[in-house]
Write a structure and sequence with these properties.
The complex is a heterodimer of chains A (about 140) and B (about 80).
Chain A (H helix, E strand, L loop, with lengths): L1 E2 L5 H11 L5 E8 L3 E2 L2 E2 L2 E6 L1 H18 L4 E7 L1 E4 L3 E9 L2 H18 L2 E7 L2 E5 L4
Helix pairs in contact in A: 2-3
Chain B lengths: L3 E6 L1 H7 L3 E5 L4 E2 H11 L10 E4 L2 E3 L4 E2 L4 E5 L6
Parallel strand pairs in B: 1-7
Antiparallel strand pairs in B: 1-2, 3-6, 4-5, 4-7
Classes of the chains: A alpha+beta (about 140), B alpha+beta (about 80).
């Protein structure tokens, strides 16, 4: 899901928990906006996306994750628009019977998201704006 | 939309092209590379397309793809979400 609004990590974990009583572990990745990047201060971030392609790419990641890992479900949210320092950017929540599967799937999902979802980050620095292109 | 194509630019390409999108008259199918060559004449910034992927109607393609009237072509710089 791609949205400009913030999300609640607790609420998303609760939704994941409610999916199945067979869940034995939930792993989350929360990406947040930091104030320093590659030697310069960052004041604010702006994310833009290619909406239809980005939504499709996120769905594909979810489907692939469900297919290749022993997990019960996975949920992903990425925010777009202006994001202040310290704010939430991206959340991945993976529920599985066992923790190792959830850890592995969660790491794979965020790596795939960075590689395959058409979303771009612009950093606002004291010296101007920079579009970030390389994957951190 | 018949007889025209839409071209979309993202991130720094949008700044270099000086526009987010443009609709151009388009009558006859042609390979994407031919269209790119034409675009480079008016948008020289496109010549330095390092790492840029292209999509037609929301699917990744290479420059051999055939463009049809009504298509939406997108130039996508390396992604930086997450």
């Amino acid at each position: 899901m791609i949205q400009s609004a913030d999300f609640s990590v607790e609420e998303e974990i609760a939704k994941m928990k409610a999916i199945s009583s067979r869940m034995g572990g939930i792993v989350t990745f929360l990406g947040t906006a930091r104030d320093f990047s590659k030697g310069h201060d960052v004041v604010k971030l702006t994310f833009e996306h290619y909406s239809k392609m980005a939504e499709q790419a996120m769905l594909k990641i979810r489907e692939s994750a469900l297919e290749q890992f022993s997990i019960i479900d996975v949920m992903m949210i990425h925010r777009i628009g202006e994001i202040g320092i310290g704010e939430n950017i991206v959340l991945i929540v993976v529920g599985a019977e066992h923790r190792q599967d959830a850890f592995t799937a969660c790491a794979w999902c965020i790596d795939e998201l960075k590689k395959t979802v058409p979303i771009w980050k612009r950093e606002e620095t004291p010296d101007g704006q920079i579009w970030v292109e390389e994957r951190p | 939309m018949p007889h025209q194509i839409t071209i979309r630019f993202f991130a720094h390409l949008k700044d270099l092209a000086g526009m987010e999108s443009v609709s151009l008259p388009f009558e006859q199918d042609c390979p994407l590379k031919q269209l790119i060559a034409q675009l480079e004449e008016t948008i020289p910034a496109l010549k330095s397309r390092g790492g840029i992927q292209m999509a037609v109607n929301h699917a990744f393609v290479n420059d051999e793809a055939i463009i049809h009237p009504g298509d939406e072509i997108a130039f996508l710089p390396p992604f930086s979400g997450g």
